[in-house]
Amino acid sequence: MLRFHVITLFPEAIRSYFESSIIGRAQKAGKIKVSFYNPKEYTRDRRDRVDRRPYGGGPGMVLEPNAVLRAVSAAVGKKKAEIIFFSTAGKVFDEARAQKLSKKKDIILVCGHYEGVDERVVTILKAKKISVGPYVVTGGELPSAIVVDAVSRFVKGVLGKEESLEGSRVSSPEVYTRPEVFVWKNKSYKVPKILLSGHHAKINEWKTAKRMK
Known about the structure:
Layout: E1 2-7, H1 15-18, H2 21-28, E2 32-37, E3 51-52, E4 62-63, H3 65-76, E5 82-92, H4 95-101, E6 106-110, H5 119-125, E7 128-131, H6 141-152, E8 181-184, E9 187-190, H7 200-212
Parallel strand pairs: 1-2, 1-6, 5-6, 5-7
Antiparallel strand pairs: 3-4, 8-9
Helix pairs in contact: 3-5, 4-6
């Protein structure tokens, strides 16, 4: 079983996604497991405070190292785990990385928030920085959901059919279903004739051409 350990201040923001659809069924089937660890539950601050003002100034707060590190320790103890830290300065996450991560047993996803996490957390954990795109979001929860979803697809048994993986089939960014002719506001929209031909070789050529655009 592949276990994901999500370190986040807001588990409720993504918990429902992991309990739904393919990822939810994969957890029920024991193929993967997603667990949450809130740094607020591991802080030594009497008021459960985990954010502090940054040295050097700045507009926001920074998550302190102690609470985050204690949450990570609670997640896997002494077990060896792949630790991921989300950062726009990290390597761009792709299919090859997702497939490689699917071979791991434990993956820790550290979700930053506000102005981020104290950089010493990355240093101490020897975490690998990953970026999910050339943009900034308000926290690491959405990036963690992307990584869990993309990696889980490569775990055997998660998808209904192994050929559902794009690398195992000829796919197209354009897909159609019934009816053959769809009418919307008095205008007709037809399924491309090639998809109705039954000529698999030519259909694959069409799909490949669409992917190359």
